[in-house]
Amino acid sequence: MADTPGDVRLSWQPPNARADLTMLGPVLETGHDLETAILISLFSDQTADPDDVLPPDLSRDPRGWWADTYEGDRIGSKLWQVLGRVRNPDTLNFAGDTARKSLDWLMVDGVASAVAVIPSYYGSGGLRLDVAVTSPTGTVNRFAFVWSQER
After folding, report:
1. pLDDT score of 116 more than 80
2. Exposed e or buried b for every residue in 36-48, given b needs 16+ CB within 10 A?
């Protein structure tokens, strides 16, 4: 069986608060599949539920991915709902809870034996998530993501 290069790598771009494809010279970099999966899980906008409290200027936009209408699993997280919220412990708890929920599939699918998320405020308007994913063999992979909570 030939070695497969893995998924196209996404890397977090803190100044832009988004992930982007990573180039390796003239070609797309591959590998880093766990990091890419985490980025998609955290920063793809999951559709809001009818009882979710949405940011005032987004109250009519439930966001989400169109295919979630047809699938049992929902892609992404509701971290986008943190935009414009007051910086307080409730907002940190919401960010941590929604991030953990979006990463639960890693344990369900056997990719990880444990996932830990620690949210914190960063600077005057930023939010940081420290994510630790423990593999079934016990290896801990750590990731940190920072973005602005402001618009």
Report:
1. yes
2. bbbbbbbbbbbbb
